[in-house]
Design a protein that fits this description.
heterodimer; A: alpha/beta; Glutaconate Coenzyme A-transferase; ten-stranded mixed beta sheet; three-stranded mixed beta sheet; globular; B: alpha/beta; nine-stranded mixed beta sheet
Chain lengths: 216, 215
């Protein structure tokens, strides 16, 4: 299993029936591929849709039905559309049960930086700040390391996305939570040891009494 | 409401105007008006829109032609030309959270001076903004946005200006149609009054100043 598949499959285990879920661009988008068949989950696309479905077959795309990256998507029966004020009212207003976002850094306290590398990358925050401020549950889906460096850092040195602490980080090596504001190792990826995770994590990790392997 | 030609519609927009432009990554963008802005070389524009789209599409066409000097947007990450112009100081871009952007526009169209939002508290977005505590929670005061023109694209428009949108092409369009002195609309289809049922009208006709003729 490659890193992205591990992350997407593990995040999918966080889904519950009836949830309204917003998936960010990148790895988070892949989570939709691993929804257990018996779960009815509502996916929101921030550009104004609840009930987004898989990428349409070639020739079945509609130019006015796209995801937040402008790529064609489909709408499942029961889908609904709305304007951007409603879309962000849903997000900021606490109506979204869970958001899954990518990350550049998450620190030992659970703060997330995911929208800019000053001087290098200035894309803008899009909907990320509203999502982290307003969703009931914030899950970060990202690789554990980038270019050999840990993305779970002691303290974020990139600009923060929100003053709110994230709930869960799922990487290709581990699942990390933040009970009491302290990064805590909850699970490891298949074939990864607790020592491997600690060696690849810059932040100090509390190790839970029992650290099971991801059930993916 | 008056029906005008594409050329007439854009001729009303002076250089230096503030212009809200509907669309999300070009989906639901008033492409014909954008093409005509480029053809008439309207310059020094102050654009308020969700994003800078990609080169060659939507607002990306205005960026390509160097017509924008100031922009408020939530995301320009998919338009390298916009990022280059921003870094080279050819275009000043305020990047703000998308929910804040749309709500500031909504406020501008609804007679509100601004809104209080928790988004951006504790981040670089709060710099220079007033913080207000309400019931123990901290919010940023974000002021309303209003523009000289709103360029809106709809799916159906009737000859009274009632508008209906399609799928994710709705996005910022109906919100912007409230927030500008002059609202100019293009539509995929222009239909007789009555074809858009009252229940399906999203933007009420009296908000629309000019409807651009098709064909």
């Amino acid at each position: 299993m490659d890193a992205q598949t591990i992350i997407a499959k593990r995040v999918a285990l966080e889904l519950r029936s009836g949830m309204l879920v917003n998936l960010g661009i990148g790895i988070p988008t892949l989570v939709a591929n691993y929804v257990p068949g018996d779960l009815k989950v509502f996916f929101q696309s921030e550009n104004g849709l609840i009930g987004s479905g898989p990428i349409p077959e070639q020739g079945m795309e509609h130019p006015m039905l796209t995801d937040a990256g402008g790529r064609p998507i489909s709408a499942l029966p029961g889908a609904c559309v709305f304007d951007s004020a409603m879309s962000f009212g849903l997000i900021r207003g606490g109506h979204v049960d869970m958001t899954v976002l990518g990350g550049l850094q998450v620190d030992g306290q659970g703060y997330l930086a995911n929208w800019t590398i000053p001087g290098k990358m200035v894309p803008g925050m899009g909907g990320a700040m509203d999502l982290v401020s307003g969703a009931k549950r914030v899950v970060v889906a990202m690789q554990h390391t980038a270019k050999g460096k840990s993305k779970i850092v002691k303290k974020c040195n990139l600009p923060l996305t929100s003053a709110r602490i994230v709930d869960l980080v799922v990487t290709d090596m581990a699942v990390i939570g933040f009970p009491g504001g302290k990064a805590t190792l909850l699970e490891t990826a298949p074939g990864v040891s607790v020592a491997d995770v600690i060696a690849n994590t810059e932040a100090e990790l509390v190790v839970a009494a029992k650290v099971p392997e991801m059930a993916i | 409401m008056r029906t005008v030609s594409l050329e007439e519609a854009v001729a009303m927009i002076p250089d230096g105007a503030s212009v809200m432009i509907g669309g999300f990554m070009g989906v639901g963008a008033p492409e014909r008006l954008l093409d005509e802005l480029v053809r008439q070389r309207k310059s020094n524009l102050y654009v308020i829109a969700n994003d800078a789209c990609v080169p060659g599409k939507g607002i990306g066409k205005l960026v390509d032609a160097g017509l924008i000097t100031r922009m408020i947007a939530s995301h320009i990450g998919l338009n390298p030309k916009a990022q280059q112009q921003m870094i080279a100081n050819k275009m000043s871009i305020d990047l703000i959270p998308q929910g804040t952007l749309v709500e500031r526009i909504r406020a501008g169209g609804c007679g509100l001076g601004g809104i209080l939002t928790p988004t951006g508290v504790g981040t670089s977005v709060e710099q220079g903004k007033q913080k207000i505590e309400v019931a123990g929670k901290t919010y940023l005061l974000e002021t309303a946005l209003h523009a000289d023109f709103a360029l809106v694209h709809s799916f159906l428009a009737d000859y009274q200006g009632n508008l209906q949108y399609a799928l994710t092409a709705r996005n910022f369009n109906p919100v912007m149609a409230m927030a500008a002195d002059t609202v100019i609309v293009t539509a995929e289809h222009i239909v007789p009054v009555g074809v858009v049922a009252p229940d399906h009208v999203v933007t009420p006709g009296p908000l629309v100043d000019y409807l651009v003729a098709n064909g």
